[in-house]
Amino acid sequence: MEGLRELYQELILDHKRHPRNFRVIADATAAVEGHNPLCGDHLWLYVKVEGDRIADVAFQGEGCAISTASASLLTESLQGQSVAEAERLLQEVIALLTEGKGSAEALGKLGVLAGVRDFPSRVKCAMLAWRTLEAALAGKGTPSVTTE
Amino acid sequence: MGEMHAAERSRLWSPERVRGDFPALSLKINGFPLSYLDNAATTQKPKVVIERLAYFYAHENANIHRGVHRLAELATAAYEGARERVRRFVNARSVEEIVFVRGTTEAINLVAASLGTLWQRGDEVVVSAMEHHANIVPWQLLAERQGIGVRVLPMNEAGELEVEKLPELLTPRTRLVAVTHVSNVLGTMNPIAEIVRMAHAAGALVLVDGAQAVSHLAAVDVQALGADFYCFSGHKMFAPTGIGVLYGRQELLAEMPPYQGGGDMIRTVSFAGSTFADPPYRFEAGTPPIAEAVGLGCAIDYLAQWDRQAAEEYEQELLDYTIARLRAVPGVRVLGSPQRRIGVVSFTLAGVHAHDLGTVLDRYGVAIRVGHHCAMPVMDFYRVPATARVSLAMYNTFEEIDQMVMALEEARRLLG
Predict the structure, then answer these.
(1) Which residues of chain B have a CB within 8 Å of the CB of A42?
(2) Do the Cβ atoms of B414 and A64 come within 8 Å?
(3) Structural domain harbouring B68
């Protein structure tokens, strides 16, 4: 099916089957819980910031293919980046997924997440990890975020 | 007429007799004919109900119980006519026992808020382990407000309540047992009459959540069940949203204080104080959903023209077929195996999250519910974050189940 292949591209399925950085960071500078109460997607995002650089980022949790792949791709693309770069990526992904703004191509691998735009009920699945990252970077000690 | 075998009887029912009455059932979704298997969430509406709403607004629209003009009289007659239809539908003794509310959730909240004010700190309620959040949270709110204890009647792996454990949960302080007639996740039909006997023997009342029962069973008889309160929603039985029913035994409703204050529920009002109307009006403050109530009455008339026994037996055969087909799919786990299951079955597919499953099925025109079904304790019991749920109505066909299983196989190939 055309639409389904757009949503469940090989890259998404690969990250769903083999999530990257699926672990706990014991000495994380931020550990934030993300939860989607409607569907039960649930994850913990761990970020370790050293100076202005993301020294390590990882996650654990359970959820659908989209939320798992989105979290996995997030950790892969932010590993070792500067905090400023992470914030730029975060804004671009949010703009792309929620408003359809910007270009999927410019986001590289992360552009694969744009497939959810044709599935409105699934956008929040893709957004969960990113909303959780937003709280982690804001550093307000937010214990948990929800997408609804 | 002699006793007829169930399978023979179910042949008296053909979904094709009613499908044409439901406009939504001929929709195409993503190029496929809609297979609507989400009836536990809400059923589709027959043309007569849709047209009844339009007729009310075009020909009878006025507020009720006030005004002496012609339209006010027509509207009041239509609204109270619906109440009498509901009375007959559940075999209540009198219309005074039928309170119109927004739905099952409001019915339970009404009882908790109103009856609860008559209880003392340290009194208890028992809720079952398979309740919808609507039959858990109102009791928890009451517990917080008034220091009421909430105890849980457990269930077993088969998805059946451990009713034999109820007597040990009942104490002299137990005021009420809140239990669902049919589980919205597992489809389990609970032995209400037996639960009522045990509860009454201990001096406790019984509130039954009938939301998933009324559209499936050939008949619901509140007197035969012995329930003190019976709650259900119109929209799950072919009627509009926004209308539901609280049945309460007259002597109980009579001693219960108002739930909300406003117009229509009073006898006299002065700044020194007010006196209140008798049930059911005491509990119907403000302008109720008039057209929706009339629509519910119309849905009851619609159901009454069919052989509901034959429809129930047909649905049972279709459910057995659904479960057999699901169990034959590698990786499918059907939740529970209750002796008596009505209209609903939940399952998981190994390696595929329920939400992905729901999205794939939708692409093939198949509508099911995925998630926790507002019953997180049941999810916790089976240690699953979410399930897929198929729920039937009298208009569903064997072909729709085949389409669902075909799409399930596709999901397994794509995502498993």
Answers:
(1) 385
(2) no
(3) 49-304
